[in-house]
Design brief:
It contains 19 helices and 16 strands. By secondary structure, it is an alpha/beta fold. The protein folds into two domains: about 260 residues, 3-Layer(aba) Sandwich (Aspartate Aminotransferase, domain 2), CATH 3.40.640.10; about 140 residues, Aspartate Aminotransferase, domain 1. Bound molecules: pyridoxal-5'-phosphate (PLP).
């Protein structure tokens, strides 16, 4: 992050003065965002800090180009430089993850998942129907055949991890498009261990017979055995789709290898690029050869036109992720999560699953007699940025919740190590043990209001500032 900092500082300052000449409020917001990020203890497990090179790559005229289609096969003229950009991004993604095929266009993680679902439906439902009917595309179908195909689309099933135990909305949650386009059933975790119960999952899958088995999570603090997931998918003839949005950085950095690396086992893998992978905000799909041509139909069938400037930034970030320092970073993310978990455990906090072996920790706020909402707010008052999250069988529901999710990717990017994360655990416990729920008007314990003992917020902020000062964000980048 340091090599070209002085040059980058000039670039950002010049850029901001150009922006300010048109709309100063936007330049101010950009400056203020950096100022805030610098002084907050960012523990949001899905956030990170992209490199200056990655950030600088986003703002340019690649954004002005329309490039629907795929590399070398666009619906617009003059896409040779976008082709070059997308090819480099895809090459880095394939090499980094050892994937047969990579598609760098999705604008976000959710978009990447939609591309994956779309590709699976086309490969496994539409394509066989077309061959059976001797048609090349759906345009060749008779009205009756088209209706029959649409009816077949409507009977497809997906099985993903329940939102309640850490799955993502897009894994079949009913209000989400994934839960509406598919019949869905979710799998939970074992009530005692809070871990995925693969035997039960196998039995449920045999009963439900999904077209798609989804593995991956947003708030499950453990590694997944993708060899087991593959066996389960094979036992029921399902496509294995892995959403590694949260933990792609640990795969890229070779912390998750063997059966914990999804790429050799999955048919399709989707990810974000801005979480543990530390790239620009965006998505990525990896696929086996079987699914490649269907993934390629993502734009314009599911996605809007590619954001070529963002694909360029993905290429830069993926190049960084292929270096030795990124591996060191990824290992530190995992080691630091251990330290954070141990720090909380030894101070008496209950952790979902009893610990972590990835980059995130989910702790139970009922330890402190608080809802997740109260804990999240009290921590924020003290400058500690987290997010509330439900825990399995949450007594306070999905809005107030009884958990807080924290992760190590962002602060590890600043240079925090095990000692600093132990201190972070101490700050969290200090704040929450000084927080009291405010009783609601009906005499029940309130779920949102709380009081934080005098002086705790300012003392915590001061201690956090000391830590953060030792590990400046974008050191040397002084805005004028
Ligand atoms: C964050 C996340 C997504 C969504 O990513 P966006 O870029 O916000 O669309 C999808 N799946 C999982 C598992 C995630 O954690």
């Amino acid at each position: 992050m340091t090599d070209h900092t002085a040059t980058a500082a000039h670039a950002f300052n010049d850029t901001l003065s150009v922006i300010a000449s048109v709309e100063p409020r936007i330049a101010d917001a950009i400056r203020s965002e950096l100022a805030d990020q610098r002084v907050s203890l960012k523990l949001i497990a899905s956030e990170n800090y992209a490199s200056l090179a990655t950030l600088l790559t986003m703002g340019n005229w690649l954004s002005d180009k329309y490039a629907e289609g795929t590399i070398g096969h666009r619906f617009y003229a003059g896409c040779q430089h976008v082709d070059a950009v997308e090819a480099v991004a895809a090459e880095h993604a394939r090499e980094l993850f050892g994937a047969e095929y990579a598609y760098a266009q999705p604008h976000s993680g959710i978009d990447a998942n939609l591309v994956a679902y779309w590709a699976i439906l086309n490969a496994r439902v539409e394509s066989p129907a077309l061959s059976r009917l001797g048609a090349r595309t759906v345009n060749d179908l008779t009205e009756a055949d088209w209706e029959a195909l649409r009816a077949e689309f409507n009977t497809q099933r997906v099985m993903g991890m329940s939102l309640d135990v850490g799955g993502h909305l897009t894994h079949g949650f009913r209000p989400n498009i994934s839960g509406k386009m598919f019949h869905q059933r979710s799998y939970g975790t074992d009530p005692t261990t809070e871990l995925i119960d693969y035997d039960k999952l196998l039995a449920d899958a045999k009963e439900f017979k999904p077209l798609i088995l989804v593995a991956g999570y947003s708030a499950y603090p453990r590694r997944v055995n993708f060899a087991r997931m593959r066996e389960i998918a094979d036992a029921v003839g399902a496509v294995l789709f892995v959403d590694m949005a949260h933990f792609a950085g640990l795969v890229a950095g070779k912390v998750f290898t063997g059966e914990e690396d999804p790429v050799p086992y999955a048919d399709i893998v989707a990810t974000t690029t801005h979480k543990s992978l530390r790239g620009p905000r965006g998505g990525l799909v990896l696929a086996t050869k079987e699914f490649a041509e269907f993934v390629d139909k993502g734009c314009p069938m599911v996605l809007g036109g590619p954001l070529s400037h963002m694909m360029a930034a993905k290429a830069v970030a993926l190049a960084e992720a292929r270096t030795r320092p990124f591996r060191t970073y990824a290992q530190a993310v995992a080691d630091n999560a251990q330290s954070l978990a141990e720090g909380l455990l030894k101070r008496g906090v209950r952790l979902v699953t009893g610990g972590t072996d990835n980059h995130l920790v989910l702790f139970d706020t009922t330890t402190f007699g608080l809802t997740g909402r109260q804990a999240e707010s009290a921590l924020l008052d003290a400058g500690v940025v987290t997010n509330r999250n439900s825990i399995p069988n949450d007594p306070n529901g999905a809005w107030y919740t009884s958990g807080v999710r924290i992760g190590t990717p962002a602060l590890t990017s600043r240079g925090f190590g095990a000692a600093e994360f132990d201190e972070v655990a101490d700050l969290i416990v200090g704040v929450l043990s000084s927080t009291l729920p405010v009783t609601a008007s009906n005499g029940q314990p309130g779920k949102a209001k709380y009081t934080l003992a005098d002086g705790v917020a300012s003392r915590t902020k001061a201690r956090a500032a000391e830590l953060l000062d030792k590990f400046p964000l974008y050191p040397g980048l002084e805005l004028t």
